[in-house]
């Protein structure tokens, strides 16, 4: 993601020229809340099929496809008020992916960035996060008081749970029959995330055994990870969510944890590319 300075009151800069950036910003305004202002706009180095732009407003971080913006709006978002950290991670393709982690631990991958541009985008977001939490800088004295009555959440307040989709996927051509990946995504189209995981870094696409839509997707993911904690493939980096287990074993646990939310589960991986390749040998 290359950011270059463009003098405009609504954004910091973008890889596109001023005219194109102004057009994107103008379309984006249709999806902004009252009083919300765009402060940064950037494009990925190599456009992904489903995510080509990142916009930072004074309230949110938005990911969207420029081609589909006017029709569909942002594909994903994270409220500034719930951002816990912003970081970059290097992929196997030597690209840097921009990742936002919220207070519940849920991660949102906003696409690949240039190493030299990531610190600048991080500073922009951190500068917005800090002013939204003045209580973190000045501790208030605790006064004895009676237990307050439960209060209903204010309209627009972030939920204590994170809605999203849990997924169970495997790749027998790459990892064998006794390994699965258990994760979650907050994307409106969960298969976009699965397709990204099956990019050129692995020889075959992933097979999906289950997509479980939940109002507390992070809680469901954590429960599954705890159930299979002794089977983690990587016990040092817990963000590597691979486990030595079969799809059938995960199904047994999911039926207990997800209950009626588990509408469909495919135990047998299709592995079409892998099996087709074997018949040709």
From TrEMBL:
It comes from the Bacteria. Residues 150-161 have a biased composition (Pro residues). Residues 174-257 form the Bacteriophage T5 Orf172 DNA-binding domain. InterPro entries: Phage_T5_Orf172_DNA-bd. Residues 129-165 are annotated as: Disordered. This is Meiotically Up-regulated Gene 113 (MUG113) protein.
